């Protein structure tokens, strides 16, 4: 299974590189290939000329192979830790795929790639990783209260997976509903186990301190009721599931009966009501392990394709060309607008519009001089001359005023001198 895992990862990285440098399709400049995918739940066959389905299928298979490798690992030594890490990596892969498969063209996403399927697989992986912590804690004889918290979280993950399964009809019908029953059974079983662990802890405390028997009886009754919620799933599944369930259920019932007899003959405590009994507090020991760096690492074939211009870059070149064309058009429109405004102004002044095309190095055409002379003949030049003469008379008047002011100042200064 480890080799399958490595092979699927390499396949994903290779197709990611190929998709970056090569355009697929039926044009002459494209690579014309057909990719086939069989859905894991419905066996539906999909064909597509685009590599996205192949890429995400390889990543999906990588997540499945990682999960299966963890299931069959030897848990001795660091095996539990390694298996838990693989489960948490797989959970991240399925969660990551939810954001990837939205890029698939309409109609190409199979049940495998539905939101419900990927969420179900992610929660299932986390539930199995959390179970490994329960197994480890139980083997190390940790306190019942701690075991109850771990079981409560296992139940939450299985419940989420079961809910995702029930939303999608095709997932719900997988293996004629057997897989759905497995998820539902584990959700109810570990929920009951959480209450059972709390009840056992209270029974041990009662035996040790000789008090609290009524509380112990109430908690064991509640644990038994929780196990009975899982009973329909266990009976439907049968086989090893039913055998294991009956064993634990029988132990729970026997302990509850013993505590009830002791309470009636020794303690005479009031039995605690179900709604007053303590509830397990879930404690999560797992999380999704991000492996972005691992799946995005460049494969060896990337060196063979580096000299090619990626389709994305070619697309960007086209976008840049369109942007530059837009800028040029915008500036041309601005110049044209200015020219129109200038022409309008020249027209209002009865000047020829051709003047805008003149430059300092060009000679004024004779035709233009003729039009200027015509403009002058309309009387504007005589008006300018009259204005100039009028301005000259104003200059003479101003000079006289200045002389008068200067004479007055001199006279005043002479009077000041005599008075001193």
Polypeptide structure, described:
The chain has 420 residues and is mainly alpha-helical. Helix content is 72%, strand content 2%. It contains 13 helices and two strands. Strands 1-2 form a two-stranded antiparallel sheet. The termini are far apart.
Classify the secondary structure makeup into a structural class.
mainly alpha
What Rg is obtained from the alpha carbons, in whole angstroms? 45 Å
The figure for the number of domains is 4
> Can you tell me the CATH architecture of the largest domain?
Alpha Horseshoe
- DSSP strand count: 2
Question: What do we call the CATH homologous superfamily of the largest domain?
Answer: alix/aip1 like domains
Counted by DSSP, the helix tally is 13
Low-confidence sequence ranges:
355-360
Largest sheet: 2 strands, antiparallel
Q: And the CATH topology of the largest domain?
A: Serine Threonine Protein Phosphatase 5, Tetratricopeptide repeat
* Terminal-residue CA separation: 124 Å
What is the helical fraction, as a range of percent?
Answer: over 70%
In spatial order, strands of the major sheet run 1-2
Give, in order, the helices and strands: HEEHHHHHHHHHHHH
CATH class of the largest domain: Mainly Alpha
3D shape: elongated
Instruction: Calculate the mean pLDDT score and round it.
Output: 86
Percent of residues in β-strands: under 5%
């Amino acid at each position: 299974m480890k080799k399958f895992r490595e092979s699927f990862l390499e396949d994903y990285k290779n197709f990611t590189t190929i998709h970056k440098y090569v355009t697929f399709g039926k044009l002459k400049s494209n690579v014309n290939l057909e990719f086939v995918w069989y859905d894991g739940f419905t066996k539906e066959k999909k064909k597509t000329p685009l590599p996205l389905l192949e890429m995400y299928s390889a990543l999906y298979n990588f997540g499945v192979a990682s999960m299966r490798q963890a299931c069959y690992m030897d848990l001795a030594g660091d095996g539990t830790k390694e298996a838990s890490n693989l489960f948490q990596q797989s959970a991240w892969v399925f969660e990551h795929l939810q954001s990837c498969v939205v890029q698939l063209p309409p109609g190409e996403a199979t049940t495998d790639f539905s939101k419900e399927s990927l969420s179900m697989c992610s929660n299932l992986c986390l539930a199995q990783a959390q179970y490994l912590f329960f197994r480890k804690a139980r083997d190390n004889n940790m306190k019942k209260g701690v075991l109850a918290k771990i079981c409560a979280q296992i139940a939450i993950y299985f419940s989420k997976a079961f809910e995702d399964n029930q939303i999608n009809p095709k997932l719900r019908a997988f293996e004629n509903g057997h897989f759905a029953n497995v998820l539902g059974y584990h959700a109810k079983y570990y929920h009951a186990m959480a209450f059972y662990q709390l009840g056992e802890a209270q029974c041990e405390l009662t035996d040790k301190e000789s008090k609290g028997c009524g509380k112990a009886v109430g908690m064991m009754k509640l644990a038994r009721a929780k196990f009975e919620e899982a009973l329909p799933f266990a009976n439907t599944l049968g086989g090893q599931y039913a055998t294991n369930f009956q064993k634990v259920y029988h132990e729970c019932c026997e302990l509850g009966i013993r505590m009830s007899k002791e309470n009636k003959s020794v303690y005479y405590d009031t039995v605690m009501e179900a709604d007053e009994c303590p509830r397990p507090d879930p404690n999560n020991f797992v999380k999704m392990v991000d492996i972005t760096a691992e799946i995005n690492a460049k494969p060896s074939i990337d060196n063979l394709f580096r000299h090619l211009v990626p389709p994305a870059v070619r697309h960007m070149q086209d976008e840049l060309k369109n942007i530059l064309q837009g800028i040029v058009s915008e500036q041309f429109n601005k110049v044209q607008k200015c020219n129109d405004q200038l022409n309008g102004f020249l027209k209002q002044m009865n000047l020829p519009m051709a003047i805008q095309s003149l430059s300092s190095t060009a000679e004024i055409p004779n035709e233009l001089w003729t039009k200027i002379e015509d403009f002058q003949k309309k009387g504007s030049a005589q008006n300018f001359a009259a204005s100039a003469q009028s301005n000259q008379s104003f200059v003479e008047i101003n000079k006289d005023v200045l002389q008068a002011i200067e004479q007055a100042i001199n006279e005043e200064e002479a009077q000041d001198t005599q008075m001193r």
